[in-house]
Amino acid sequence: MICLRLWRATPIERRLAYGLVLFLVCLVTLSAPKSGHAENLPPLKIVAFGTSLTARGGWQPALEKDLGACLQRLVKVANVAKSGETTIWALTQIDRVVAEQPDIILIELYANDATLQRFVSLSRSRQDIGEILDQLHQRLPQARIIVMAMNPFSGLRGLIRPFVESYISAHQAEARKRGLEFVDHRPNWERLPSDELAAAIPDGAHPLPGIASKIIVPELVKHIAGRDCGG
After folding, report:
1. Strand duo 44-50 + 104-108: pairing
2. Average of pLDDT values for 220-231?
3. Which residues pair with 181 in a beta bridge?
4. I need a surface site. Which of 25, 75, 154, 197 has the fewest CB within 10 A?
5. To 5 degrees, how large is the angle CA 216–CA 219–CA 142?
6. Which InterPro entries does the UniProt entry name for this protein (predicted)?
């Protein structure tokens, strides 16, 4: 019946009818629900490579969620991390990192090198992190490599790391020498009032996961995405 009416309609009526159909098609297309993620993009793969500050950190799920929302893309974070370990151990784990074929590698490996009882000298730590960065860059040339400084230490955990600042500086220098990225989370931690900081890191080394997510994740999202998505 509609087709018959269009057949009998004048040219002006036909053009109006076709215009109305086109308008309705556009309206339906624009109002269709979106998936929330960029189409045809594989997940952004991140490897967090480090010590207990990563293994026990608890900030990775929040990074997946917030960075994914910012980029409108699925984000997956895998850990290659172990409590109490040093750069000596990390040198034996490079195959595991490479096997993940990450787009981004987040690295924090200075904390236990800096403890007095592990006897990893500053020069050895610097040599090790340089070798780690070189191997990762050679085997994963497209990956973004981001070296990180995490939270401050206090109490006994701070006393056994009297030269931790030098270890951080050495790791930062090795990253910068290779044109790699460095993110320092300590200033954001140190903005907390002293009582809040103590409560957030009750053992002097390992932040509570919920607080770690609030401090670490926004900085990483901003750094990785290149914009502030916190609003």
Report:
1. parallel
2. 87
3. 146
4. 25
5. 105
6. Ester_Hydrolysis_Enzymes (IPR051532), GDSL (IPR001087), SGNH_hydro_sf (IPR036514)
